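Lab notebook, design round three. We kept the backbone fixed and only want residue identities now. Task for the bench partner: fill in a sequence for the structure below.
Input structure tokens:
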């Protein structure tokens, strides 16, 4: 799942990100196949992640779904818009849940080295 920073709004933790995920399944034919079994199923989901406040962000997404069955080779295509709220955090090992939820998300920038 590649995460690409698109633009910074308030700092390293407050950037707008483009997130692209793709999941696919493909099944080989067998003599006992039925028309309800899947030949392939692919789901491509590009999403933009906009920070709202702190670690809470709004993530509009579009799911592109492509499906074909094994026997009749009927193809199903769908486009599904989704809007979700996300809360990202880093949970260091050995901390309790309340303290883990307070840590910020993992950022793409490294801290500056001191000389």
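Proposed sequence:
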């Amino acid at each position: 799942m590649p995460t690409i920073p698109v633009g910074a709004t308030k700092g390293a933790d407050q950037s707008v990100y483009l997130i692209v995920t793709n999941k696919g399944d493909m099944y080989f034919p067998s003599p006992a196949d039925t028309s309800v079994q899947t030949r392939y199923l692919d789901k491509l989901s590009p999403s933009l992640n906009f920070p709202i406040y702190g670690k809470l962000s709004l993530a509009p997404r579009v799911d592109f779904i492509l499906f074909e069955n094994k026997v009749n080779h009927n193809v199903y295509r769908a486009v599904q818009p989704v809007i979700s709220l996300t809360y990202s955090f880093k949970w260091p090992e050995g901390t309790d849940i309340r303290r883990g939820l307070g840590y910020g998300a993992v950022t793409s920038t490294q801290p500056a080295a001191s000389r």
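Keep this in mind before ordering anything: Confidence is low (pLDDT under 50) at residues 105-115.
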